[in-house]
Description:
- By secondary structure, this protein is an alpha/beta fold.
- The chain has helices at residues 5-15, 30-43, 53-65, 76-92, 118-124, 134-151, 161-164, 189-192, 196-218, 239-250, 270-277, 292-304, 326-336, 364-376, 411-422, 433-449, 488-494, 508-521, 536-539, and strands at 2-4, 20-23, 46-49, 70-75, 98-104, 128-129, 155-160, 167-169, 224-226, 232-236, 257-261, 264-266, 282-286, 309-311, 383-386, 426-432, 455-460, 477-478, 481-482, 499-503, 527-532.
- The radius of gyration is 26 Å and the shape is globular.
- The strands form 5 sheets. It has a 7-stranded mixed sheet with strand order 3-2-4-5-7-6-12, sandwiched between helices. A 5-stranded mixed sheet has the order 9-11-10-13-14, with helices on both faces. Strands 15-16-17-21-20 form a 5-stranded parallel sheet, sandwiched between helices.
- α1 packs parallel to α2 and α1 (5-15) packs parallel to α6.
- It folds into 3 domains: 2-218, 3-Layer(aba) Sandwich (Rossmann fold), CATH 3.40.50.970; 225-343, Rossmann fold (3-Layer(aba) Sandwich); 364-539, Rossmann fold, CATH 3.40.50.970.
- It is built from 19 helices and 21 strands.
Amino acid sequence: MLLLGNEAIVRGALEAGVGFVTTYPGTPASEIGDAFAEIAPDAGIYFEYSVNEKVALEMAAAAAVSGVRALCAMKHVGLNVAADAFMSLAYTGVRAGLVIVSADDPSMHSSQNEQDNRYYAKLANIPMLEPADPQEALEMVRHAFELSEKLELPVLLRTTTRVNHTRGIVKIGELPKTFTKAARFVKEPSRFVVVPAVARQRHKVLIERMGQARQLSEDSPFHMIIGKAQELGIVSSGVAFNYALDAVEELDLTKRIGILKIGMTNPLPCTLCEAFLLSSERILVVEELEPYLENELKVIVADLGIHREILGKGSGHFPQLYEFTPDRVKRAIAELMGIAVEKPVAQTLPPLPARPPQLCAGCPHRATYYALKLALGDEFKNTIFTTDIGCYTLGLLPPLEMADYLLCMGSSIGTANGFTRATDQRVVALVGDSTFFHAGIPALTNAVHGQHKFLLVILDNRTTAMTGHQPHPGLEFSVTGHVPAVAIEDVLQGCGVRSIHILDPAGLQEAVDVFKEALQESKEEIAVVISRHPCVLLRSGG
């Protein structure tokens, strides 16, 4: 089958008999959830777009300890949200297999940072696999479930954008006849209730299990040695391995360079690495983002007491920023081997015209921003606009220019709390409907309890628009059909907000009048405006 990397992950989970899947949508992992949303009802799999990644992981963990194979998918920054549950889950472990997909985003195509989540596997001390292409994505997911059950630990499948969003020919396996089985949670408080006394014992168990994982890593079918490292040895993983392999073949260096491809990157196969390190005086590490493998290899060299030149990011052959390209890897290898390579034709052409992202024509967020700007009038320039993660973040761009501070999901409300106390400026916080449910409610309760005074604008376009129009708790439908909606205004009242306004930004003058009233009220207490109008793509059927 011709499959997207994310679709291959779904197929691998299906072949493994997954029965429970949760996610919070986030690029580059969104298609994993979207694919399951389409097939889960017919396959008899439980699937849910959870309110955030922490809840998604907690649900998947509950399924896995009850005997159901579970998968939880998220983008890299989503693992920050789930980290509290993630770290303790390593201690309690699981009974049925649990695979956690973390999709990293080198070059930040759709993210606020490009953190390297390989370090999360080391931090939690759990096994990690890294596919290099869609075929490996399928096979590694299947293997990850087996590995998880053998070790009774969750397994992290770490991908990157170019693996998630690459299409490739994938050889598929058989599907099981059923994806669900009768589940029952067997009580074991001495394992699953991590009070300090339990946690102390479970940490010991975790270390023992990871000792077993080290041997399993040595025997992993996803490691590969290609060629013989006579003049140079290359160590790589993930999509960067593909670039390195292509470069060696294109430069006709297959008889002079050997490549060690590592598929299970935590725990590292130290014995395999040691043997490869001894095969060449010079080792080039080809990996995107942080020098994860590079530093690990330097430790192994130090432990062996041998001298080896470990090249990569520390030596300046590769940058620590952004994703690699095949040409970038080829030039680095050619330079080390003393081979001159011509610059590709594309580099001699003039750059393409810049095409920055922008709000869609007819987007209700445009009208909301415009009405708010008119209502502020002369106060606009002295107003701090704290914004959030979503389409509306594009309010940063001219001519709107209504975004001054952004950290993460839900931070618009949290940072607004701080700005109101740290400065004497007017503060307006902007958050989307899905983001409000994801991470905005705790900061809102803090604002009410702390008597902070600012205007909160909730841009309710009736969907999770930026990642593909997935449902959220404010809507009366989910992948399972009709469900009770959680009204944003009811949540606001429950949190103690007294000043609540609802407007439709399509009515400009009315919207301006409502904003003026709310801005006046925000001088005395937190005031909230819900600007409610469906996403233009929903209305147009796009």
